[in-house]
Sequence to fold (242 residues):
Amino acid sequence: MSRHVPFQRVHNFRDLGGYRTADGRTVAWGRLYRSDSLSKLDDADWAAFLALGIRTVIDLRYPWEIERNGRVRGHESFTWHNLSIEHRPYRQAELGPEVDPVPFLAAKYAEVAEDGVAEMRAALELIAAGDGSPVVFHCASGKDRTGIIAALVLALLDVPEEVIVADFALTELATEHLVADITARMGRPPVWPGYGRAPEGVMRLFLAELTREYGSVRGYAEQRLGVDEATVRSLRDHLLEP
Fold:
């Protein structure tokens, strides 16, 4: 099956199915998706989006981003939740070329991991609460905030770290489109050469920091987020093939 779901205006919509866990189980296809902003879905894409049968949409952006750029259009088939996991905004497009994306972004992810505790726990609980009905979570580019939630979910499903890192780096396939999107919005290209990039080293460094601080990603989820065994068991029951 294709991991990338093709749309005309949304460029980083991906199925998290197919990944193998350490105990040999497989993440089910068609149950959990990650994406860039769904406010970009045009009329031609809307029917294709609804056909996925998504029942829960989790928007990880700031309320002011939603006010400025819009949100996914409403529909009776799904519920929409805004959980802004990032609390300290920064403008990636305006960073200087001297900024190395690997340590810079890993440090920003560590900030989110400490600041967005309540919102990340709520997002994980929403994903775990379903009955296997499809869920999508997204931010603006589907890379940073979305990448953090994807990494947490996959780690709690016991997907190996190298697979989590590789999934993060798949955003590189959409970088050109993401740069084009922000160029159109700002009227000029981003200054930062790292804009829209997803080097593997970012996620490796972030996961290493969580492990150093909490013993493992699972340890972070339990000790800092308060994710209990019942939530982890529910995630596995709903997202893994038997």
About this structure: The beta strands are 14-15, 32-35, 56-59, 79-82, 135-138.
